Amino acid sequence: MAQQRRTQHPRPHRRAGFHGRGDHRDPLVTNLYVLPFHTPYLAAKALGSLDILAGGRVIAGVGAGYLRSEFTALGAYFDRRATLFDEGLAALRSIWRSPEKPVRGDDFEAIGPVALQPPRQQPHPPIWIGGNSRAALRRVVDHGDGVDAADRGPGQDLVDPDDGDRDPRPVLRRTRDPAHPNGTVRSRL
């Protein structure tokens, strides 16, 4: 029986931690941390630790994921990724803002206070939601500080024109938060 060859790829937060060290001023974007692969507590700890190591320069670029094969390989629920992503986004903010208050979801639960070192940016690093769909834009409005519209070139619409006739610009304008120091929107409108 031939031995199967395994390739190890560093997790995005570990790779970014390596690149984030030193005296740099550019933001460090995790593009793309697939939130449904992790419990919200693991994500809060990993992204918060990265923000500390990077001197408060992290932008948490998160997404729902789309490759069934990756979900299968990790034992994650592909068919529940949207629900897990929404639940994870809400829990992530709650964990960072009030780590002493246990958070519970369908697939995770803290039974008491959890000791997490707070991220350097307060109340938390900016969260940019990855994706090009209406659901991604809804998540930006509900949970995000910006949108990371990957794989779009100059002049291309942020949302698929077959996905309805509503113009995404008003939705994106609502995502700008002047009270947040990093309240920016990354898009190509």
Topology:
Layout lengths: L11 H9 L7 E2 L3 E2 L5 H14 L4 E6 L4 H7 L6 H17 L29 E4 L3 H10 L2 E3 L20 H7 L14
Parallel strand pairs: 1-3, 2-3, 3-4, 4-5
Helix pairs in contact: 1-2, 2-4, 5-6
- Could you give the order of the helices and strands? HEEHEHHEHEH
Helix content: 25-40%
**Poorly predicted segments:** 1-10, 153-157, 159-189
State the assembly state of the protein chains.
Answer: single chain
Round the Cα radius of gyration to an integer and report it: 17 Å
| Average pLDDT figure | 76
CATH architecture: Alpha-Beta Barrel
Based on DSSP secondary structure assignment, what is the total number of beta strands?
Answer: 5
Quick take:
With 189 residues, the protein is an alpha/beta fold.
Notes on the protein architecture:
The chain is α/β, with parallel strands linked by helices and 189 residues long. The chain has one domain (27-175): Luciferase-like domain (TIM Barrel). The protein has six helices and five strands, in the order αββαβααβαβα. Strands 1, 2, 3, 4 and 5 form a five-stranded parallel sheet that branches. α2 links the parallel β2 (33-34) and β3. The model is unreliable at 1-10, 153-157 and 159-189 (pLDDT under 50).
